[in-house]
Amino acid sequence: MTKKKPLFDPKSLKFLTAVSSVEYSKPTLKMGALIASVFDASHGVVYVGERASEFHGSSVNLTRTNLDNWNIIHPGLEVLEWALQELKKLSPENNELAKIQFNPDHVYEEDGRVRVMLPEEKGCRIELVLREGELVDQLRKEIQLENYDLAIIGGSQNKRHLAHSLIQYLPSSIFILQKFNPRKKYKLLLLVDDSIATNKSVEWGALIAEKLGWPVRTLTVSKTKRFGAGYQGAADKAKAYFDSRGIEVEQFFLTGDPVRTFVDFAGDNHFVIMGASTLNPVKQLLFGSKPIKTLEQSDVPILIVR
Amino acid sequence: MHISADMLFWVQQKRWLLVALVVGAILYFFVPHPQSLGPDGYHILIIILMTLILILKEPIPLPAIALQLIFWQVMIGGSTANEVGGYFMNDAVFFIMGSLMLAVAIVSQGLDKRLALGIIHLTGNKSWRIVAGFTAISAILSSFVGPHMVTAMMLPVALTLIRYTSDKGRSNTGLIAALLFSIAYGATIGSIGTPSGGGRNVIMMNYWAEFGSGSLSYIEWMKMVYPMVLIEIPITTFIILKTFPPEWQNLDTAVRRLSVEVAHAGKMSAKEIFSLFLFAGVLYGWIVLSEDYGLGSIALIGIFLFMAFGLVSWKDLSRGVNWGVILLFGATISIGVQMKNTGGAAWLAEGSVNLLQNLIPNIDALRAVVSVALSGVLSNLLSSSATVAVVGPVVLNLGGDPILLGLASVISSAFGYFTAVAAPACTIIYSSGLVKAPDFLRAGWKMAIMSVISLALVALVWWPLLR
Predict the structure, then answer these.
(1) How many CB atoms within 10 Å of residue B242?
(2) How confident is the model at residue A3 (pLDDT cuts 50, 70, 90)?
(3) Using the beta-carbon criterion (under 8 Å), do B159 and A168 form an inter-chain contact?
(4) Quick check: is A213 in a domain?
(5) B325 touches chain A (CB under 8 A)
């Protein structure tokens, strides 16, 4: 594994952070900015607002046009303006970013979204986008349009309802910041099994551990008392990969129901990384999958690598 | 694998389209039509049921819903394409099209700044007077020009006041809700006052004419309904102030700053004066000439003049009008007429009366309850105009005085206070992001009770004096 070419080029990564409001999105935006900066990724921030019933679309559009004449900005743009200010505060060393001013007049509608024009010629790798409609549908469209590698989403109150849709339908890796506390010291918990997605999640884990300096643990769970060659081999390969990059790793092998064991082990002080399920989507819809169930049952930040 | 996920996502997004199709197919293929209703009437009711599901959940764009209404009528509804097309365009559709265009033409003149100045002069600085002024002005204007235009012009005034009241605008939840709801509910209660107050009023007038149920002139409509608007204005103000007490008693700083801002607009330009003159002409035409020429034709004359004098461009009009809605109204009215022609409307009306006659033995009261309940409930789920387009033919087949029942249906379809979807004014304030769905419930139930009592009062005391 150590001699293989990396599965992705960290230099060309694109991350997308979904913000919902000034009140609740600060930790999400902070983590999004941190992750994007340590990966040197370009960073999109999207606000998904509610869409008015199409029946009264004319009336709403007419009102918004008139609000523009009164210099009252499109609802949602104030959240993006706040996001830009926060990103500036989070990267005080970024002089180019500091120079950028938010101008609500510099927005234009394209591809069913409103994009705030920021001066790309100054090396700005930030994108501010406003969308209206159903959350998963709009995030999916944004990810497909801009080829984002990772979507960073805040923990939601109705996560059980959203978990299925987010994991099944977003075509990128997903980082869900459940009960994320930026001041807390997390340990990285990598769930390792013999699935294909484990290789990629090991790479993500190694990069995050390197950049953030968090301690790393790997957890392999078997339903029976015996660990087959596949599981053992995957755990060994993961350890070898971390060793090759000089990252210390603690290995754990536990038996029991995988999801229950992940959740109990993760407690509230781990940052979980796991691979996306390779199950058929219809089976996932009907019976769920390990990532879906883990997300539903746990209260820690989870990165699901696709 | 990716394709499967895409397919699954499509199914999830379009599930209500699939539900509508499956329900329609089961009813069409496996459930025989009732003895008392012919196959065409039954099929029309199936199409209406499918359409209601689609309008309610919006799994496909509105124009697509309109198109399926047309082709189903031809394919299974027993109508020819020419018959459907014949009912598609009429004065009600012309009026809806014309009033949406007029809204774009008027709002683009920037007359709202003058309006703001006028309101402030009238109300002064006190919060309760401003809320009362917003409610009254919105109701009166909306009764003539429709709630969408009034809300589009009033909302910036309210938001500017809110912006100038405090730097932390969002913490003024009481003031914000009071100002926004005074516009939305004011415009909604006003929209029943005259025929030109809303598309649904003209749709009902169209049904009266189409079904030979009689007619009401513009002035006759006003005589019957305007007293209710006048009763509701002060009570609505009271309900709003009690439900959302503003945090400030006085908005003197905000009013002063707003006055300064609108004063920058200077004196009225010749273009603005001419626009007002043209609009007054349209209003005059609606009041005096609509019996002969129809409300829609007069609205179109107004639009023609606005364009001819270069006051608004076609580009602005076509961009500002949702043509899909116009298509949908045309299609909904055409199926409403087919519902009447095939006996579907009479069957539904008879069924409703039979179902409830044990509960309400008095037939007149029963008809009134069915008319008000059907329109009131449905308008909180659909738009009020769509409600009247669908419910109108049923109500007019209940028996009794079709004019009174039609009026009761139209008025109660404006009782969509509980949700943001029923009335355009409610949708507009909701889309500002400053009021939440539960706010509509907090004030809505009080508004609904007040409106039902007002309607009963007008229907039992005032209407008998006039007819």
Answers:
(1) 11
(2) very low
(3) no
(4) yes
(5) yes
